[in-house]
Write a structure and sequence with these properties.
This protein has helices spanning 20-37, 43-57, 60-77, 81-84, 96-114, 119-135, 141-158, 164-179. It has 180 residues and is an all-alpha fold. It has a single domain (43-179), classed as Globin-like (Orthogonal Bundle). The N and C termini lie far apart (44 Å). Keywords: Heme, Iron, Metal-binding, Oxygen transport, Transport.
Length: 180
């Protein structure tokens, strides 16, 4: 059975009795709009990312498991990143201290995803996060690595419902704000 994806946005022009000429015009216009918005996190992409994130991130104890999968993936991808979290117990990813930190980090991601459609508040949050990470000397390239791992974990959780384009352009919007 085909999975039913939350936020699956589709036009149903074939079911409305719209003429072939009108359908052609609609598709050309939609193509132009898509081409213009292809590299940006617009309202549709933001909505898709929010829905995908909410489904993948889950609730309560699911969030800790999700976070551990992300950080284990990050440490496997780049073993140097583990040292960045030594003060919060990265040597034992199942410790309370490390799980608490994972919860804080993903809480920050959750906040940014939630604010994708509120530019002034998102920009203020990103400026704050940028300051925190700059203070700690975090290499901006690590945000890209984290994004790659987040994308893999979200995709594994969502399967066919995952929209890679929406995820990439919206996560890029978040990381650009933290890096700048």
């Amino acid at each position: 059975a085909k999975p039913v994806c939350q936020g699956d946005l589709r036009l149903h022009v074939f079911q409305t009795g719209v003429s072939n000429t009108m359908q052609g015009v609609l598709f050309v216009l939609l193509g132009l709009v898509a081409a213009v918005m292809a590299d940006s996190c617009g309202p549709v992409e933001a909505l898709k990312m929010k829905q995908q994130w909410a489904h993948a991130y889950g609730t309560a104890e699911d969030r800790v498991d999700f976070g551990l999968a992300v950080f284990k993936g990050l440490f496997a991808k780049d073993s140097e990143t583990k040292a960045l979290f030594k003060r919060v117990g990265s040597d034992n990813v199942h410790s309370g201290a490390f799980k608490a930190h994972v919860t804080r980090v993903l809480g920050g991601v959750d906040m940014c995803v939630s604010l994708l459609d509120d530019a002034p508040t998102l920009n203020a949050a990103l400026t704050h996060l940028q300051g925190q990470h700059k203070e700690r000397g975090i290499n901006p390239g690590y945000f890209d690595e984290l994004g790659e791992v987040l994308e893999q974990v979200v995709q594994a959780k969502l399967g066919k419902c995952y929209d890679s384009h929406a995820w990439q352009v919206c996560y890029d919007k978040i990381t650009k704000g933290i890096k700048s």
